[in-house]
């Protein structure tokens, strides 16, 4: 089954953005050919006894969240500028079938969160892959924490973490490039967010699959919110009607994404 239809099928009816008749067109507009490839099984794509930050593991995560394609239909993978650097690292014989390598060393919760945040921001900022860097960084964050026996609580929202790592709120964000100030701000915010939403624990397969699928479903939320943002800017005089038609969950995600539309006298409530 094409990944687009699969994502729509597995998303629950309680999703913040209900499915519309034009979901296929909407997602294809934003993600192109990437959404037409077959969905990859998590435990068949992410395998081998590798630490989360290993180039092969990151490539596996990227393939999973993007169906191995770019929006233009190319085979996804590392950007050409990084291929030479990671070539030696990828020339390995992967052994084992575990979904992550559990660290035997004991680390303080705070140090694990700091390291996980650094890894996620490095992927998002360096843009190692042709496409899907944000989703790859989020899945790497989940696996790194699990590798070091740290679990995310039910108050953790993948989309909220996405908006923080994206640093859309910071003036130092130019498309996919973050200046030093934006990187520092995003790091501070994601660490603060995670410290309130993590506990020590051992991840099971159901936990990992649930979060992996949630990360893969991000295109649904992102596509809808981009459309709402465009409407709000184009039809600002009618913002009250647009805002009033949203449910509480939708309003929260829009505020997370476009804080600049929620300031001053024109603040949306």
From TrEMBL:
It comes from the Eukaryota. This is Fido domain-containing protein. InterPro entries: Type_II_TA_Toxin.
